[in-house]
Structure formats: C-alpha cells, structure tokens
C-alpha cells in the first residue's frame, strides 16, 4: 500500500513539474518575442540644440547596434540646430553638444512623437547632453 501511495505521489510530482516547466517555457518564449520586437522595432526622435559658440554636436543617428550605437558628428553647426533620426530598438536617443564657452546658454532636447522625453540646460547640457531611454524599452 505504501509503495502504491509513493508511486502515485511521484507521478503527480513529475506531472506537476512537467506542467510547471511548460509554463516557464511559454513565459520564456513570450519574453524572447518581446526582446526580438524591442531590438528590431524602429522609432523616430528629433534632436534640438540651441545656444551660441557650439563647437560640435554628437548624436546617435541610428547606425551601429542597439547596444553599441555609432556616434555621428556635426562640426560648427548653425543654431538653432534640429535633426530627426530613426533609431532601432533599445538604442538610446542621445545628443551631446560641445562648447568651450561657459556663457553659451546651451539647451538640448530629445523629442518623441511631439513630447519632450529629455531636456537639459546650461551646465547639465554641457556636462552630459541629453540621453534618454528608448521609448520602446519602456
């Protein structure tokens, strides 16, 4: 009798484990699909930079990979400067203006679908520019 009970319990445990692993596998497949979508989906952002005496502007323009975006650069840009780019997946939108003039009155923005998703002014813009999280990642 004890052997029959142990066998039944073992069968139930194995069956439960199999169903549990199947659910985990389904969840893992769903997560993988979401990652694929996040990596392959594209989105547009517009960068805006204002100020004076700007030496250069570096920005993510869409080339490179999502994890290692290639920087593009414009030297001695006229301001106000504006550029719309198409980025891929989880690639973060980023624009980094460079000036040597502490009184440059520098401002940078990242705009997605008409909404400012990142803005920096003055010293903050000079120190790190504007780097936002990909709207696809959120």
Topology (SSEs and partners):
Elements: H1 2-40, E1 42-50, E2 54-64, E3 69-75, E4 81-88, E5 94-99, E6 107-112, E7 115-121, H2 122-128, E8 130-131
Care to describe what's here?
With 138 residues, the chain is of the alpha+beta class. The protein is built from 2 helices and 8 strands. The chain has helices spanning 2-40, 122-128, and strands at 42-50, 54-64, 69-75, 81-88, 94-99, 107-112, 115-121, 130-131. The protein has a 4-stranded antiparallel sheet with strand order 4-1-6-7. It is elongated and about 55 Å long. The protein starts with a helix and ends in a 7-residue tail after the last strand.
Mean pLDDT: 81
Q: What is the makeup of the main sheet?
A: 4 strands, antiparallel
Proportion of beta-strand residues: 35-45%
The number of strands is: 8
Order of helices and strands: HEEEEEEEHE
How would the global form be characterised? elongated
What is the radius of gyration?
Answer: 25 Å
**What is the subunit organization of this protein?**
single chain
Helix share of residues?
Answer: 25-40%
Amino- and carboxy-terminal Cα gap: 56 Å
Q: Which stretches are low in confidence, meaning pLDDT under 50 for 5 or more residues running?
A: 2-22
Strand order, main sheet: write it out. 4-1-6-7
Count of DSSP H/I helices: 2
Class from secondary-structure proportions? alpha+beta
């Amino acid at each position: 009798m004890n052997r029959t009970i142990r066998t039944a319990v073992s069968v139930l445990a194995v069956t439960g484990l199999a169903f549990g692993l199947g659910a985990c596998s389904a969840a893992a497949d769903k997560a993988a699909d979401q990652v694929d979508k996040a990596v392959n989906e594209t989105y547009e952002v517009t960068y805006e930079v204002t100020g004076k005496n700007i030496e250069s502007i570096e920005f993510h323009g869409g080339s490179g990979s999502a994890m290692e975006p290639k920087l593009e650069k414009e030297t001695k840009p006229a301001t106000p400067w504006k550029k719309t780019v198409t980025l891929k997946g989880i690639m973060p939108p980023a624009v980094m203006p460079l000036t040597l003039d502490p009184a440059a009155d520098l401002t940078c923005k990242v705009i997605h679908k008409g909404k400012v998703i990142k803005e920096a002014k003055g010293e903050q813009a000079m120190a790190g520019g504007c780097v936002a999280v990909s709207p696809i990642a959120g």
